[in-house]
Amino acid sequence: MSVPAGFKRLALAVSVTVGAGLAALGLASYLVSVDAARDAVTAEVRSVTGLEPTVRGTSTLSMFPSPRISLGDVALAGFTGDEPPFVAEALVANVRWLPLLTGRLEIADIALVRPHITIRFDQDGRSNWSPLVDSLARAMRPGPQSDPRTLSFSEIRIADGTVVLQDAGRAVNEVLENVELSLAWPSIAKSFAATGRIAWRDEPLDVSLAISDFPAALAGDNSGLKLRIGGAPLKAAFEGAMSMRPSLKIDGTLAADAPSLRGVMGWVSGRSLFGVGLGRFALKARTNLVSGTLAFSNLNIELDGNAAEGVLTYGLSGRQTLQGTLAVETLDLTPYASAMRLMGSDSRDWNRKPIALDWFDDIDLDLRVSAARVLTPQTRFGRTAVAATLRDGRLVVTVGETHAFNGVITGSLSVAKTPAGAVLRSQLSLDNVDLETCLAELIGVRRLEGKGNVRVSLDGAGASVLGVTRTLNGNVSLRAANGGLVGVNVEQLLRRLERRPLAGSADFRSGRTPFDTLAVVLKISQGTARAEDVRFEGSNVRLSVGGTASVPGRELDLTGTASLLAASVEQPPSFELPFFVQGTWDDPIMLPDTQALIRRSGAAAPLLDAVSADKRARDAVRSAIERLGGGDGAAALRRYGVPIPETTTPPAAEPAAPEPDASAAEVPTR
């Protein structure tokens, strides 16, 4: 047989087959009318779901490229209320070929095109879909008279759907858009599965749901449950069981992770969260959901590189609540350091950043945390146990014990949100702490060495840490022993000034003065601290100090007396010198009372008396001081205690007075 003849026979066979198919399609379309097809599809849906489809649009029957029946504008009846919560632009049923050739319509699968589904819960928690659940349970309940055609199709597809979830009791109104789901209907097996993609709050999510015993789940009995959610904000997987009698209960294992917990919280709450930390997050726990309470046991959680174990309980009904206990080996607070810093970035001024407490309104908190080590950018804490409670916009952190600065800290700190910012209150006890590191890291003071006890009772209000310092009230006390005052050698200075009162002050801001005991009691009112009792006692030196300090400005204005003690305690001090302390906390200046030094000097004392009584002598000394020091001679004389009247005209030229001796040129100025 020639090749052309073979091709002719193949072409003839194909033509016959195509013709037969066309004839079959024509015969099928002749045997099945559109009205009959519509009635068959609605009857099939009614049998499967128990709901009555209402076709409000045009119905069509198409044979190409495959037989399908399309019902336009479909609503499902059988819900509570008047408005149908389930409507679709079209319901498309794909029909099987062979049954159709015999004049019988059998559905292979159903597609819902652009459906709009509303799920609503009333104040009592009952859903408008409750009749659907009851109908499905009746339709799928096994029985001796069950119709094998009842569950003929096994797949329902949702294309470009919208799901609206409303909960009147919790004021929830959420919308799921671009819903693309494939529902594996339990036509043969008892399982149910849904896979596809949805979009919630502009974030696309891949979802997968599997129920091992769908009829039991519809009846409210126990059934296996698997859920997977994957997207850019969050990935989560749950595997366990669920039941709905007498109320919803879910129990199993949950695993979740997110690149940013702050991002997830902002995405879920619907508003951006500002602040620091709350980055990389991961969780794995035994999970139980019952009566609106979500409980995590055998919990392993990671946040910003910190790993903890414990239990957590999260209340979903009513106001959100979080309770739990966590244990962590090493707690690194570095990611949150900028939010907790009292000092500014230059470590010389108070933090001016606004105190952000918006999240105080969202949740109630009762959390206990224990850690073997706590790390901050400045220091390292040892064993720590704290409890945090948040109620009605007020956060209270109770420090049961924390080992810090080679001592122990206990007490409490509270922060309450106000329209103007925050109200802060503190009651802290720092026992046997290292003063140098403690004061340096807490308030930026680096002038004391040794071990001591600090008691703090303060309160204030403001929009920032700086604002709080301006309204600060309370008390601060310090008791220390066997330490030192850094930056001045008082004993050396006093001995030199005892020998030569006008010998200068080159060493005022260097050296170290040891002490045996130190006692400081401060009374703070509206940001001004008053020294009620300041005593510094060493083996050879005693200091007593009074005056005030500005907390917001971090400035000192103190006066005191330095005493050089005699060899015997029964004898009075061998030398006493009044002094001033002025300047900033970080770098104060200590200056002696120059009038006392001048009066102690045998050569300069008569001169001081002379210039105090005689205007011509006073003007001459003033002129000499200005020539020697290049400064304001009148101001210098005022510091010596010499009265100088204010004048707007320069004094008349007077004969020059005799110049003081060389030691007078070394008189220190404040």
From TrEMBL:
Residues 639-670 are annotated as: Disordered. One of its GO terms (cellular component) is plasma membrane. Residues 349-533 form the AsmA domain. Signal peptide: none annotated. Pfam families: AsmA, DUF748. GO terms for biological process: regulation of protein targeting to membrane. It comes from the Bacteria. This is AsmA domain-containing protein.
